[in-house]
């Protein structure tokens, strides 16, 4: 029993060491890989995924928000590209998440909009 509590405590401490508060993320990133790594290691108030199984080209979509108002929208395509948009309003994410056509909604409401950062990579971790 003591080993169990020691292991559980150690796991909690190690996890805390690897995550950071989302409020401490930089305003700019030097690469897609840095942005993805920092976002995924941070603690957010909102983390959601969208079911993209009916999309012809968006293969995954995730949303991370620190303040519940705006956040990071991360998605992958069937061509093997991965993108991050920051500053995406939660209302846009919710509408995307429930859109009957994810690709059409993205093209009309997210693509080429002034939503701050856009990172593109053909690698995904």
From the structure above, extract its key features.
125 residues, alpha+beta, five-stranded antiparallel sheet, two-stranded parallel ribbon
Structure description:
The chain has 125 residues and is an alpha+beta fold. 35% of the residues lie in helices and 30% in strands. The strands form 2 sheets. A 5-stranded antiparallel sheet has the order 3-4-5-6-7. Strands 1-2 form a two-stranded parallel sheet. A hairpin with a 4-residue loop joins strand 5 and strand 6 (82-89). Helix 3 (90-98) packs antiparallel against helix 4. The longest helix is centred in the first third of the chain and has 17 residues, at 2-18. It is globular, with a radius of gyration of 16 Å. It starts with a helix and ends with a strand. The relative contact order is 0.17. Mean pLDDT is 81; it is low at 2-17.
């Amino acid at each position: 029993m003591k080993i169990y509590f020691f292991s559980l405590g150690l796991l909690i401490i190690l996890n805390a060491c690897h995550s950071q508060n989302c409020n401490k993320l930089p305003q700019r990133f030097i690469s897609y890989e840095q942005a993805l790594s920092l976002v995924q290691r941070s603690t957010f108030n909102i983390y959601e995924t969208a079911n993209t199984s009916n999309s012809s080209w968006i293969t995954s979509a995730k949303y991370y928000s620190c303040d519940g108002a705006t956040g990071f929208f991360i998605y992958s395509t069937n061509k093997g590209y991965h993108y991050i948009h920051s500053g995406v309003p939660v209302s846009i994410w919710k509408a995307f998440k429930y859109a009957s056509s994810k690709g059409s909604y993205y093209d009309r409401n997210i693509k080429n909009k002034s939503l701050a950062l856009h990172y593109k990579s053909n690698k995904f971790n």
